[in-house]
Amino acid sequence: MQRIQHEAAKVVSKVVRGGRNLNEVLSESLRRQASLTPQERGALQDLCYGTLRYYSRLAFMLDSLLERPVQESPLRCLLLVALYQLQHTKAGQYVIVDQAVRATKSINGAASGLVNAVLRNFLRKQLALQEAADRNEESRYAYPQWWISALKKQYGERAAAILEAGNQHPPMTLRVNARQTTVAEYQGQLAEQDIPAHMIEPGALKLERPVGVERLPGFAEGRISVQDAGAQYAARFLDVKDGMRVLDACAAPGGKTAHLLESADIELLSLDKDELRLGRVRENMQRLRLNAQVACGDAATPQDWWDGKTFQRILADVPCSASGVVRRHPDIKWLRRPEDIESFARQQLHILNALWPLLARDGKLLYATCSVFARENEFVLDAFLEQHDDAVQLGLSAPGMTDGQLLPNDEHDGFFYALLHKKV
Predict the structure, then answer these.
(1) CATH code assigned at 208
(2) Do residues 420 and 394 make contact, with C-beta atoms less than 8 angstroms apart?
(3) Torsion, CA 176, CA 178, CA 179, CA 180, rounded to 10
(4) Triad 400, 403, 405: Cα angle to 5°
(5) 276 and 180, same structural domain?
C-alpha cells in the first residue's frame, strides 16, 4: 500500500500542479510500475480517480487540520490520497496512517511526524470536519465554484443532482453489434458467464457490476463494444440509410464511427486531426470487422482534405468541455477554466460553419457534445441558425431529454444533440 500511496500522490500532483491529463499520467505511471499486480494496478487507479473526484473537499479538510499550509506538492498530495482512503476505502484506518507515514520518508523524512499527526487528528475530528465541509459549496460538491455557479444559474434546483451525478462511479454499458448478434442472445451469453446485465436502450446493455473486457464473451471478435448509452443516441438520431455517403468529422476514438457502420451499409469517412488517436479508430475497425476510410484532417479546415463530394449525413461530435462525462474524467474539474468554455464555443461554431457546405441538399447534420453547459450547446446552435437560412433544426426525443440535453444519471452520461436539416 505504501508504494501505491506514493505513486498515487505523484500522479495527482502532476495533474493538479502540472496541469497534466489524468489518463496520460496514470498510463505513464503504470508503464513505469510494470511489476504491479492487477489488484495493485486497480488500487492505484482508484486512489488517483477518487482523490481527484473529491479533491476540493479533501483539500478543505486538510487545510482545516493544518496550522500552516503544506506547500510541498508531493507531500500535500500524499496527505490528500490518505484522506481519500480513510473516507472512501475499506482498508484499516491505522494501516492507512502507518503506510502514509512510511511513504512520507520517500518524499521528506522530516515530515513523517506531521503526516502521522494530521491523519490521526482527522480520525478524531472526522464528523466535525465533514459537517464544516458541507457548509462550503466548493467542498460540499467537490467542484470549482465557477462550475457550481454556472450550473445553478442554468439549471436552478436541478444543479445539485447534476453535480452529485458527476461524482458517482460511471455505469458500464455495452453496445451490441447488430451485424453479429442480438441483444437477447448476448444477454444470455453474459448470464452464462455470471455477468448480470439488463437492457436500458435498444442495443444497450448495462452491467450490474463493471468487469474487465477480457471477461466479456466475444469482445475480441467484435460482438460488442463498451459505449455509454447516451453516446449511442448519435447513430440513432443521424438515421443513416444504405448507400449514403457519411462523414464522422471528429471521430476518434471511433465508437460512433463503428456504431454508424453497424447500423447500415454506408460509405463513411472517419476524420480526426489527431493521428495518434486515429490509431484507436483503426483498432476498433479491425476488431469489429468494419470498413471505413480513416483520414487525418481538421474538421475546421475542410479545404485541406475534402474531395468536393457532398455527404448525405454528417456527425459533428465537436471538441467541448466534457462537463457531461466528468465522472469518467474527474481531472477535468480542476483543469478547466471559465474562459475555456468561451474558447470551445467559438471553436464549435467555426467547425459547424466549416462543415455546413459539405452537406448535400436535403441532408442532415447532427451536432453533438458531451457538455452540460448551454454556452457550448443551445447558444452555439442559436448563433449558427442565425447565420444560415437554409438550416432547420429538427426535433429529437429520448427518455429524460429536454431540448436536446441529456443530463447525467445512473444510466448514461451527459450529452447534447441537435439535428440540422439542409433545405432543398
Answers:
(1) 3.30.70.1170
(2) yes
(3) 50
(4) 55
(5) no
**Same-domain status, 347 and 415:** yes
Residue 152 lies in a domain: no
Is residue 324 within 8 Å of residue 42, measured between CB atoms?
A: no
CB atoms within 10 A of CB 41: 16
Domain harbouring 75, CATH code: 1.10.940.10
Is it the case that residue 10 has pLDDT exceeding 90?
Answer: yes
Distance CA 83, CA 77 (A): 10
CA dihedral 277, 278, 279, 284 (to 10 degrees): 110
Do both 300 and 187 map to the same domain? no
DSSP notation for 137-192? HHHHHTS-HHHHHHHHHHHGGGHHHHHHHTTSPPP-EEEE-TTT--HHHHHHHHHH
Query: 238 and 211 share a domain?
Result: no
Residue 405 backbone dihedrals phi, psi, to 5 degrees: -100, 120
Residues 294 and 351 in one domain: yes
The answer to whether position 157 is within a domain reads no
How would you list the strands of the sheet with 224-226, edge to edge? 197-201, 204-207, 173-176, 224-226
Residue-wise pLDDT tens digits, 354-377:
999 999 999 999 999 999 999 999
Q: Which domain holds residue 181?
A: 173-226
- Under 8 Å between Cβ of 139 and 60: yes
For residue 101, give Cα distances in angstroms to 5, 20, 67, 97, 365: 10, 27, 19, 6, 57
How many structural domains comprise the chain? 3
Residue 149 located in a structural domain: no
Model pLDDT for residues 144-193, shown as the tens digit of each residue: 999 999 999 999 999 999 999 999 999 999 999 999 999 999 999 999 99
Q: pTM value?
A: 0.94
Tell me, yes or no, if 77 is annotated catalytic.
Answer: no
CA-closest candidate to residue 106, choices 10, 36, 31: 10
- In this structure, what are the phi and psi dihedrals at residue 148, rounded to the nearest 5 degrees? -60, -45
Q: Are residues 187 and 262 both part of a single domain?
A: no
17 and 131 both lie in a single domain: yes
State how far the Cα of 55 lies from the Cα of 143, in Å rounded to an integer.
8
Q: Which of 48, 77, 250, 370 is catalytic?
A: 370
